[in-house]
Sequence to fold (335 residues):
Amino acid sequence: MVKSLKLVKAGTESLVLAFFLCASLSSCSLLSSSEKEITEPSFLGVFSVPKEDIVIVEPSKENRERDQLIVIQLSQMLESSQVKTPSARAEVFYDLGIIYDRLGLEASARSMFLNSLSERADFAPSYNIIGVYLAQNENFQDAYDAFDSALELDPDNLYPLMNRAIALYYAGRYSLAVPDMERFCADDVNDPYRMLWLYLIESKTISHGEALSHLKERYQKASSEAKNDNWAFNIVDYYLGKKSKRDLIEDMSSNEVPLAEKQSRLCEGYFYIGKEFERLGQDKLAYDYFKLSLATQMYGYLEYRYAFSEIKNLRKKYDFFEYSEPSQDNEIVAD
Fold:
């Protein structure tokens, strides 16, 4: 892999350059469709998802107002004498970054994560989230460096291991991604998301039947309590053929589920449904399910982030490009 603590030892200069370069690239316009030959399927054609599978919910206004209030409170803490030490300031900047990220204000979030490293150059959580941003923008080598730094600075937190595995997956380095995700999965055998990502990665290195068999074995090892408590085991059931797509969508959109939870379920469920249709070669359906995942506006979720990557990869596959509007960092105003 890459040299450990490269970013820490060299200071944050190279990270800042890579981080802001990927930010500028993410907002650049792509070639217009008139400049490229569009081959089937036409992704801008009729929406292919069955009407009964389309569930759109308004983002929770209550949660957004709560996050806006937290931003104000944290900002006031930084301006007061409450937060004195660099370590404490690094944590507050990081917390601000997480809230901005959850609100979809990416430019502000990036700034906060870099501010946290300016206060404390060995602050592991910021390296982890910066690595995710870099991987999203296909700046993979710098992403690996960031994850390696996070892992060495805080060996007990294995989430950078998962994020590195996913980055390797999207870089097409599947065989390197497997041991990372195996280790992460073994750390919690009751986590369905770990099972799902290991299955997706393994499917690129062994036959689908073998990968599915491994997923079934891991599913059987999980406790009954975990299966009852974590709704995402419904996604595992879908992949294993225990539930239909219709069953899964009903689990995602049940009126008995609180709005905020329904929003997160839809984000995750639509993403993994899209991945299944991609495996089946039904790219137009996959594309449209990824679009539905994005429609949930669950900005901080990995499934939301990588739905963009999936859409980008499908466009590349068919040599199809379109203009994309630069993202805008809107001002937060408390009501």
